[in-house]
Amino acid sequence: MIVIQRMTIFESYRKIETMSKHKDLIQKMAILESAEKPYAIASVFSVTGSSSGKVGDKALFDINGNRIIGYVGGGCIENRIAATAKETLIDGVPRTVEIDLDSDEMNMGIPCGGYMSVIVEPQMVNPTLLIRGMGRVVEVLCQIACLLKFKVVVQTDENEKDRYPEANKIITEPLELEDIDFKVDYFILATHHRNDDKITFDALKKGIPYVGVVASAKKTGIIKSYLVENGISAEELDNFYAPTGLDLKAQTPEQIALSILSEMVMLDNEGSGVQMRTLVPDGTDEETSS
């Protein structure tokens, strides 16, 4: 009886899948997500008058603006959407495209006489954070970073691997940075080993945009001197963040982790790091002066 029930449920899912108008597009999205490739979804959400694209039509576009699969309208419409999709995959900001199909700017020959609206939503690849080390700071870094939608890779000792259940990947072998075959956007070093200066050097030479070291001011000075003495350029040194994090006067491992990730988010969003209330105009003073 249990087997029959399971088969019935499975068959019902197959029927739903067969009924989906965008089944192939959804399957392609799953493939792109699995391969960690960015793409943009274009969806027609409003049509007035005559248009080849209809409400609900969808298409996927790659980073070069090439249509991967789907349909949102004829050639001129697709070109307009493709250009917008390419823009969204640069800055990650969704855009709405309003297309007047009766406009001479569309160069459509015989105008359709319609008007359509399309929303283009970029699906960006989550940034990768590589953490090397162990201890409570690393544990909390992993936890919070996952909540912030980072792809987290932890390199630690074999005995420590069970401490990071949220991590996307755990490396326990002594893998050198130069041997890592995936893109790293952020690197946090929390090992407190004698060769931390060399590891920092390798990370900067690899071109990682953010190389943070959990260190005291004294240790930071020692590492920085090593970097300069061994030929790290001023431009490369701009990617060196140590002591890593914002000045929160952090006292606990949890607070230290928060300060580090706050700095990373601030840099990614091009924030200032100042208190929000200082950015709000003081209306009281204006009212008083008037």
Account of the 3D structure:
The protein is an alpha/beta fold and 290 residues long. The chain has helices at 2-19, 23-34, 75-91, 136-147, 196-205, 217-229, 234-237, 253-268, 283-289, and strands at residues 39-48, 58-61, 67-70, 95-100, 115-123, 128-133, 151-155, 169-171, 186-190, 210-213, 240-241. Helix 4 crosses helix 8 (253-268). The longest helix is centred in the first third of the chain and has 18 residues, at 2-19.
Query: How many distinct folded domains?
Result: 2
Which descriptor suits the 3D outline? elongated
Low-confidence stretches: 1-14, 286-290
The CATH topology of the largest domain is given as Rossmann fold
Strand elements, count: 11
User: Strand order, biggest sheet?
Assistant: 8-7-6-9-10-11
Distance between the termini: 81 Å
Please give the CATH architecture of the largest domain.
Answer: 3-Layer(aba) Sandwich
The CATH homologous superfamily of the largest domain is termed: NAD(P)-binding Rossmann-like Domain
Reading off the top of the CATH hierarchy, the class of the largest domain is best stated as Alpha Beta
Estimate the helix proportion, in percent: 25-40%
> Helix/strand-derived class?
alpha/beta
- Beta-strand content: 15-25%
Number of helices: 9
